[in-house]
Amino acid sequence: MKAAVFTAIKQPLVLQEVPEPVAGPGHAVVRLQAAALNHRDLWMQLGLYPNIQVPITPGSDGAGVVTAVGSPADTAWVGQEVIINPALDWGADPRAQGPNFRILGLPDQGTFAEQVVVPAANLAPKPAHLTWEQAAALPLAGLTAWRALFTRAQLKSGERVLVTGVGGGAALFALQFAVAAGASAWVTSGSPEKIARAQGLGALGGVNYQDPDWAAALQKRAGAFDVIIDSAGGEGFAQLIDLSAPGGRIVFFGATRGNPKGLDMRKCFFRQITVLGTTMGSPADFAGMTAMVQRHKIMPVVDRAFALASADDALRHMEAGRQFGKIVITTG
Ligand SMILES: NC(=O)c1ccc[n+]([C@@H]2O[C@H](COP(=O)([O-])OP(=O)(O)OC[C@H]3O[C@@H](n4cnc5c(N)ncnc54)[C@H](OP(=O)(O)O)[C@@H]3O)[C@@H](O)[C@H]2O)c1
Q1: In terms of Cα–Cα distance, which of 140, 139, 177, 143 is closest to 161?
Q2: Over the stretch 177-199, which tens digit does the pLDDT of each residue have?
Q3: pLDDT class for 332, splitting at 50, 70, 90?
Q4: Spatial contact of 171 and 188, defined as CB atoms under 8 Å apart
Q5: What is the mean pLDDT of the chain?
Q6: Which atom of ligand 1 is nearest to the CA of 255?
Q7: What b-and-e string marks burial along 71-96, b requiring 16 or more CB atoms within 10 Å of the CB?
Q8: Parallel, antiparallel, or unpaired for β 61-69 and 274-277?
Q9: CA-CA distance, 225 to 21, in Å (whole number)?
Q10: What CA–CA distance (Å, rounded) separates 257 from 282?
Q11: For residues 324 and 141, what is the distance between their CA atoms, to the nearest angstrom?
Q12: Does the beta carbon of 67 lie inside 6 Å of ligand 1?
């Protein structure tokens, strides 16, 4: 079968012929129709992801049809249309992943391929209202955003939410889920067009984080926030503390802009602010996320689809940061 492979870091993905995957006990082979990018795939190519081993087929997100299983107990999956939960071996504790936790696509071979083998426990039915491309866009970013909002921040209907960098894959799901949950959502972005598109998805408004006075302008228009979802970090993180309401929760799952220079501890403790880290999600989080997507008929936003042979162009598109939502690779 064909797969897009990193043969060395800082080198383009190469379309290669690789061995067909085989389903061992408890595993299933999925013939993929579509995969999707996450920033992790780009960090790997840039050599900025921990414990990179090459050759590796990246890709954490996928949707397709189960063609084989390794255990008789899983036979009912054969022929089913599925999405894949990329959080492998989360472990028994819903509060945090265990020592065997891995994200599909390193060290396990990932979804930028015609087929992938995954634990049968990580299969879920493809939501019927989604196309293959939309379904492939959902798992990693949807899971991360859902856990951030609901398991970690305990978001309630009517609360005020800020989602930073809304053009990002996970950020855009956070906006869609927050709106579906009845929250009042505001956004930041580096692009006025993306803010306008976010408003089309239910955001009340937004500001450009490249404007030096963005935080003051946002506070003037929107007030303070009960929940802030961030994956940029960096210097802008200090303003998130300022924008947080008393008793507010700031949840972050990425540090695209690096570490903040400092943390104003006095502002945090005096205003009873909770700062929460989160990563991916448990099986229960994944089930909660897919249930919400089905209940509210949420449609993942696909920015653009690339053919498997052009997977490296898809990474360049992500590196340029022009996307609004998810970048997809068609593999079928
Ligand atoms: N821990 C986890 O489980 C987990 C899961 C998913 C992602 N992540 C991490 O979260 C980050 C985003 O991942 P992704 O896959 O969603 O990436 P992505 O689709 O490439 O989105 C990145 C977004 O970052 C935003 N951004 C850039 N500079 C910013 C700034 N100064 N302030 C605010 N936002 C800024 C941009 O938003 P605009 O386009 O609107 O300007 C951009 O679209 C990455 O660091 C990734 O590694 C972690």
Answers
A1: 177
A2: 999 999 999 999 999 999 999 99
A3: confident
A4: no
A5: 97
A6: 45
A7: eeebeebeeebbbbbbbbebeeeeee
A8: unpaired
A9: 47
A10: 26
A11: 13
A12: no
Expressed in angstroms and rounded, the spacing between residue 210 Cα and the centre of ligand 1 is 15
pLDDT digits (tens, 9 = 90+) for 9-51: 999 999 999 999 999 999 999 999 999 999 999 999 999 999 9
CA 54/CA 56 separation, integer angstroms: 5
pLDDT tens digits for range 286-304: 999 999 999 999 999 999 9
**Local structure of residue 126 (DSSP, 8 states):** P
Helix axes 139-146, 283-295, angle to 10 degrees: 100
Check whether 135 has a pLDDT greater than 80: yes
Dihedral sign, Cα of residue 298, residue 304, residue 308, residue 311: negative
Report pTM: 0.98
Distance 196 CA to ligand 1 centre (A): 18
199: Cβ contacts below 8 Å, ≥ 6 apart: 205, 206
CA of 253, closest atom in ligand 1 = 1
